[in-house]
Amino acid sequence: MTIAKVAIIGLGLIGGSLGLALKEGYSGDPPPARTGWDQDPAARTLARERGVVDRIFGDPAAAVDGADLVVVAVPVLAIRDVFRAIAPALALEAVVTDVASTKAAVCAWGGEL
Q1: What is the mean pLDDT of each run of 10 residues along the chain (113 residues)?
Q2: Apex CA 40: angle with CA 95 and CA 66, to 5°?
Q3: d(Cα 35, Cα 47) in Å, to the nearest integer?
């Protein structure tokens, strides 16, 4: 699978670290485009200043549009709402994963949406 675009939903510590790792440590040619979204304006500003992603969007659906890989890095209780927001914009072949510390509810929400 070729990953041309990675969308990071949640640009805090974990999502931001992932974005920087993709920027600095990617060995493929070319590196994937990195898009992102965060509900916190301060997190978006910091991510922009640090070059965490190539482009920041105002809503999560726009950030995942055309993404091959979507990483959801928001608090567990926010994941269901994020899944609901991004579901209509996901490509059929997109892989969606999360960094949550719990999986039972997250997997159920993913199956539901």
Answers
A1: 92 96 81 95 95 96 98 95 96 94 78 78
A2: 25
A3: 11
